[in-house]
Write a structure and sequence with these properties.
Helix content: 55-70%
Distance between the termini: 69 Å
Strand order of the largest sheet: 2-3-1-4-5
Shape: rod-shaped
Largest sheet: 5 strands, mixed
Strand content: 5-15%
Order of helices and strands: HHHHHHHHEHHEEHEHEH
């Protein structure tokens, strides 16, 4: 289980009232939700711009005595609102991203306070009830994150109380009523804000948990498929995968006219090597030979498989006998140059014998026939003294040169 999965399980089981996750999980949450959060804040700021601007029309009727300055203040704050919405299109730090709507809301609260205190109209007192509307809008619709909602509610509450205290036109009972409405609005919206954010975070955790489980299951399935078609020791293709590859090559459209090269590779005196050095050293020897074979393959084209024991098979599509023999000779020299000690061998190092076969697919009845030809060539290489490729490169080059010389 990964550290992230462990943290998710612990957090879900803990059922804590804290909103913030452990650092690693919080960083993942910020990364995964940052783009959606910016879009949400941008939409909320644009919507608040429309609502905020529309209140100017109402103000002309209930507070006509502040028309000479209020539109200019509203226009300035509207410009800040629009700029804040546009800035959300860019990737920002979480602190700056959340501070922008917070700062704009504070400006709006100050503007409302200035309107209430600046108007001497009898109906102007009703502007006071715009404060609760601001709290509802920012805490629920705009949905500032909870710490910012608490700070904003406290700051707007202080501004409201200052304005309320400064008003001499309303009675003590009316002030108490307005204060209770404001306090209730703050309490209810903060509770709603907390519950919404908590639900969002819980939903995210459950979604991330399911995503990680699917990824883990997919990884296990891939590994199982790999084990099904690969050799556990060398990580090469196994015999089942080899048979599948040969079947695919044989059935490939328009592939019958192309030659197919096969190398049958056998580690010389391997049983004696195991007896002398032990099976762990034998495994290490096979792994080294496998790495050498893989290093000489064309990536994405050739396939090398462990055929059984110390035998390997290399499938080389579109390779003539000459090119296949040359590859086999390079492999033989690379194994010999690796200089793995083998005191029981007459060569004193680990060597390989290689049988080569190549033919047009159209001329061969089935893959087994070509494998049998490579196996026969391997037997000939062993009979000739091991540590060699059969047919030898010289016997393949000379007929080729003769063909060109006769042209």
């Amino acid at each position: 289980m990964s550290e992230l999965q462990r943290l998710i399980d612990l957090t879900l089981a803990e059922r804590s009232y804290r909103l913030r996750f452990p650092p690693l999980l919080e960083a993942r949450y910020e990364k995964d939700t940052e783009a959606a959060r910016r879009r949400s804040l941008k939409q909320a700021l644009l919507a608040s711009l429309v609502v905020y601007a529309s209140f100017e029309f109402d103000l002309w009727y209930i507070a006509p005595d502040i028309r000479h300055w209020d539109p200019f203040v509203r226009l300035g704050i509207s410009a800040v609102l629009l700029a804040g919405a546009l800035v959300q299109s860019f990737r920002l730090s979480a602190w700056i991203r959340e501070t922008i709507p917070f700062g704009v809301a504070v400006l709006v609260a100050l503007h409302i306070g200035a309107q209430v205190l600046g108007s001497h109209s009898a109906a102007g007192i009703h502007i006071l009830y715009t404060f609760p509307l601001l709290i509802v809008f920012t805490n629920l619709f705009g949905q500032l994150i909870f710490p910012f909602s608490v700070a904003l509610s406290a700051l707007v509450g202080v501004i409201f109380l200052f304005v309320l205290h400064a008003l001499k036109e309303i009675s003590w009972a009316e002030q108490l009523n307005a204060g209770l409405v404001m306090l209730s609005t703050i309490g209810i919206t903060l509770l709603g804000n907390y519950r919404l954010e908590r639900q969002q975070r819980q939903t995210y955790l459950l979604s991330l948990q399911e995503t990680l489980r699917r990824e883990a299951l997919s990884k296990v399935n891939r590994r199982l498929r790999q084990l099904t078609f690969s050799d556990y020791l060398t990580d090469l293709a196994n015999r089942r995968r080899l048979e599948q590859v040969l079947e695919e090559v044989w059935r490939a459209p328009n592939g019958n006219s192309q030659p197919l090269g096969i190398l049958m590779v056998d580690v010389d005196h391997f049983k004696a090597f195991n007896d002398r050095y032990g099976h762990l050293s034998g495994d290490a020897c096979l792994q080294t030979v496998a790495k050498i074979l893989r290093a000489h393959m064309r990536s994405g084209v050739d396939v090398v498989a462990r055929y059984g024991g110390e035998e390997f098979v290399v499938v080389m599509p579109d390779q003539t006998l000459l090119s296949t023999v040359r590859t086999g000779e390079r492999i033989r020299l690379a194994v010999e140059d690796a200089a793995l000690p083998h005191e029981v061998s007459p060569y004193q190092v680990v060597t390989v014998s290689i049988g080569v076969a190549s033919a047009s697919i159209a001329d061969i009845a089935n893959p087994e026939t070509l494998i049998a030809q490579a196996d026969a060539a391997l037997y000939a290489a062993k009979e000739a003294g091991r540590n060699r490729v059969f047919p030898p490169l010289s016997s393949v080059i000379e007929p080729t040169q003769e063909i060109y010389s006769n042209k």
